[in-house]
Give the backbone structure.
Amino acid sequence: MEKKLFIEDLEEITEYDEEAVNMLKRRAMVAIGFILLFLLIIISRFWYLQINLGEHYRALAENNRVRIRSVPPPRGHIFDRYDREIVTNRPSFNVALIREDSFDIQGVLKRLSVVLDEDIEVLWERIRRGAGTPRHFPITLKEDVDWETLAYLENNKYKFSGIRIEVQPVRVYHYGDLGANIIGYIGSISPQELEADEEGVYEGGDLVGKRGLERIRESDLRGEKGSSSTEVNASGFEQQQLKQEDPLPGRDITLTIDTELQRAAEQYLAISDKAGAVVAMEVDSGRVLAAVSSPTIHLEEFIGGISRKNWNALLENPRNPLLNKVVQGVYPPGSAYKIVTALAGLAEGVITEHTTFYCPGHYYFGRRLYRCWKHSGHGTVDVRRAITESCDVFFYQTGQRLGVDRLAAYAKKLGLGTRSGIELEHEKAGIVPTKDWKRKRFKEKWHEGETLSVAIGQGFNNMTPLQICLMTMAIANGGKIYKPQIVEMVKTADGEIIEQLTPELLSELTSREKRYLPIIEDGLYGVVQGKRGTARNVRIEGLTVAGKTGTAQVVRLAQYKGLKEQDIPYKYRDHAWFTCYAPADNPKIAVTVLVEHGLHGGSGAGPIARVVLKKYFEKYLLEQARKKAEEDQDGKA
Amino acid sequence: MIRFDRRLLAHFDWWLLIMFLLVCAMALFNLYSASYPPNPYGTPPYLKQLYFFLMGFAAILVILAVDYQELHFWNYFFYVFVVGLLAAILIIGKTAGGAQRWISLGFFNLQPSELAKLMLVITLASYYSRKEVTNGYTIRQLVVPIGLTLAPFVLILLQPDLGTALMLGIIFVSMTVFVKLRFSVYAILGSTSIAMIFLAWEKMLKPYQKQRIQTFLDPEKDPMGHGYQIMQSKIAVGSGGRFGKGYLEGTQGHLHFLPERHTDFAFAVWGEEWGFFGSLFFISIYFLMLLWGLYSSAFARDRFGMLLSFGIVMLIFWQAVINLLMILGFLPVVGIPLPLVSYGGSSLLTTLLAFGILLNVRMRRFQNGQNGD
C-alpha cells in the first residue's frame, strides 16, 4: 500500500526507457575498466616501492629510527722507561647543545652565558661553526666545566632544554712541558685530515695527534671508538637503548726516555735561558734517554685548541720553539768533527798515531792563511794531543792529505749526513759535502782550500745534534751505529705487549777501522781529564768522561773580529757543541749538547752535559763516594 | 510501518556483505597498530572506531528495511539539514588546525562535510533519474544540479577544506559524465573549470594550500614540511618490502615518523607491516568490493538505483584512489581519508550509510519487475 503511494507520488521518475538504461549499463562497464586501470597503477606502485626499492627504503627507515653516536675511546697513556706516567687522561666535562632537543635555544643560551660566564656571542659562534652537522649532534659550547657549574646545570635541567653534559677524556701532562717537542700534542681533526682518512675511522670534532709521537703513534694511541645505538622517534626523543659497544682504549706507549734526565737537562737550559738541544743515548743500544729541544712549546696551550695569539707568538719567536732542534736543527759541527778527520786520517794511512805536525798558530795553503784557534800555536802535536787540544793546524794538514771525498766517506760511516730513522718527525739529513755534492748544488768546482775548512768542521758541514750523538756513540761502543730508539714498547690498556722494539744495528765500522778507535778515545779522554783539555770544566769527581768540544762559526764578519764576545749581537755568536761519553773506560752513555749562540763548546755546552751525566750516574757516584770514604777510613785504620 | 518482504532476504547480496565485513575487520585490526602504543588517556581510536562500526551496522539494518525510492523524499530534508550544518559550522564550528570542520555533539565531533559527500550523491542521483535525457543533457538542464553542488561546495571551501570540496566536485563530474552530456557542454564546462582553477589559485587558495601543491611539485624544496610527510609515507610503505615487518612491528608509525598515522596515512601502516603481498591482498578485496558494487549498479531495478549505486561506488573509489596515490607519493597531501580504513567517525558513518544504500539497491533489484531481466 505504502509503496504504491510512493510510486504514484513520483510518477515521472519511474518511467522506463530501455535505451537510456542500456546506455548507463555500457557506461558502468566503462567505469569498471576505469577502476581496473587505477587498480593496476596502484598495485604497480606498491610493487615498485616495496619490491624494487624495498631495500633502499628499509635502510632509510632504519636510519630514521636508529641514532648512532660514537663513544670516544680514552687515548693511550705515555710512560717513561721506568713506567713513570708522562701523559695520561682525565675526564673533562663539556657543556654541549643538541639543537633538536632544545625548545628555546635563545633563552637557553642567555641563561647559559651567565652560568658559564661566557659571552653569548662566543656561544653563538660555537653553534654557527657546528651548523653543518645533523641537528641531533651535540655541539660543544664550553669545555672542562667545573663541578659547581655542573651541579647547577644538573639541578636546573628544566631551564636548559637540549643541554647535555658530555664527558670527554683530555690529556694530563704529569711533568708539564717535559719532552713537549718529542711527545707533541693533540687537537681537533682538520678538514684535510678528515679528507685523507680513507679508512673512515674519524669524524668531525675528533681529537688526533698533531705533532710529535702523538701524531706518529696516532694509530696506536687512538684506540677504537665505541658506539651507542638508540632508537629515537620522529621528534628526536630517545626511546630505548638498542646496543652499546664499549670503546677500546688506545694503546699505551713506553718511551726509552728517562724523565729525570730529560727534566735535568730541560731545567738547566730553561734556567740559563739557552736555546739548543741535548741528546743522551745508551751507547750499546741506541736507546734515547733524553731528547731536549729548547725553548719548548707549552702543552697546556694546546688543550682545546691553541689561540691565534699564542700560535703567532710561537711562529714569531726567534728561538723557534716549534723546531725540534734534536733532529730538525742543523749546525756546522765545529771541532767535534775532528773525530771524523782523525779516524779517516788513521784508517786511510795518511797519518799514524805517531805522525806529528808543527803548529805555529797558523797554516798557509796556497796564498791563504788558515788560523789555528790558538794564535800562539800548539807546537809539535800528534793526533792524541791534536784532539785533546783541538789543534786546527794538525787537522788542516790531515784533511789536505785525505781530500774531501775520503773525509766524507768516514763521516757517513759515523752516521753523519743521513737520516737515522728515529721515530721523530721531519728529521733532517744534514750535509756532508763532497766534490759531487758541490757540483750538483752550486755547479761549481771544489776548491782544495774548502777541504781544510771541512776538516775542522766548518764550511758546508751541517749536522743535527742527534747525528753528532750517534758518532759519539760509535766511538764509545767500538764502532757500532745503532738506530736511535725512542719508543720502547707498545702495550694494550690491559698490559699485553703489542710491540717490543729492540736495538737495531744500522752500520758498523770494519775491524781495520775499529783498530784506530782507541787512539781517538785517548784524545777524547784528554779533552776532559787531561791537563790541557778544552773541557776540563766538565770533570766529575768519581767519573771519567771523554768528550769533544766544538764551536761552530755562524758568520765570519770582519766587523766583529776585534769585539769581545759579549759585545757580538746574539744572533751572530758562534754555536757551542759538546759531545761526550762516560765512563771513559766502560762507556754507558753518550751525551751531545748544542747551545745556539753559546760561544764556546767547553764553557757554553759543557756544563749541561755535566748536569746530565751527574744525574745519570747519581747512584754510581754515590757508590763511588761511599767506597772512597771506606777506603780512606781503611787507610787511616 | 513498513512490511518486510521475505523475498528480499533471498536477494540479499551476501558476497558483497562478506567482502565489506572483511575489509572492515582488517581496517579495525590495522587501526589498533596504527594507534599503538595506546594513549593512556581516553578511549583508544580503534575502540572508538569499533563503536562507530556497530552504530553504522545498526543504521544499515534500518536503511535496508526501507525501499531506497523513499530517498527521493527524505533527501530534501537531508540536503537542507547538511547544508544548514555546513553554514552553521562556519559560525559555531570547532576549530582545529586553522579550519572549522566539526560540530561537537558531546560524544563525538560531527564533520558535516563528510555527510555532504553522500548527500550530494543522493541529490544528483535523484535529480538525474527524474530528468531523464537520452541524447545528453544541455547546459540549461545542468543549472539545477550545478547549483545544488555549488552550495555545499562553497561552504566547505570556506572552512577551508580544499580536499573535501574537491571531492564534491569530483562526485559531481563523475555522475554528470555518467548520465551523458551534450558535446558542447563538455567544452563549456571544461573551459570554465580551467578558468576557475586559475582564479582559485590566484585569489582563493590559502598559502598553506598553495604550499602543499608546490611542495608536491617540488618536494626537495621543503624536506621537513609536507614533502617530509610524503617521504616518510613512502619510507613506511617501501620498507615493508615483500612480506612486511610484521604486525605491530612497524617502526615508521610507532615512532611517529609517519604523520597522521591513524587517519590519512593509516594504510601506510598496513603497507609497512604486511608488505607487498599484504597490501595486494587488502587492495584487491577492497577494489573487488567496489567493482562488485559497480557491476551490480548496472543491474539495478531502475535509473535511480543505478545512479545511486554508481555514485556511491564512485564516492568510495575516488577517495580510496586519492588517498592511496597520496600514500604512494603520487599526489600531494590533500586530507582525503581512505574510507573504512582511516580513523574518523563522520567518514566511517557516511561510508557505512552509503554501503547500506548500496546493499539496499542490490537487494531490491528484482522488485516490481521493472528491470528487464
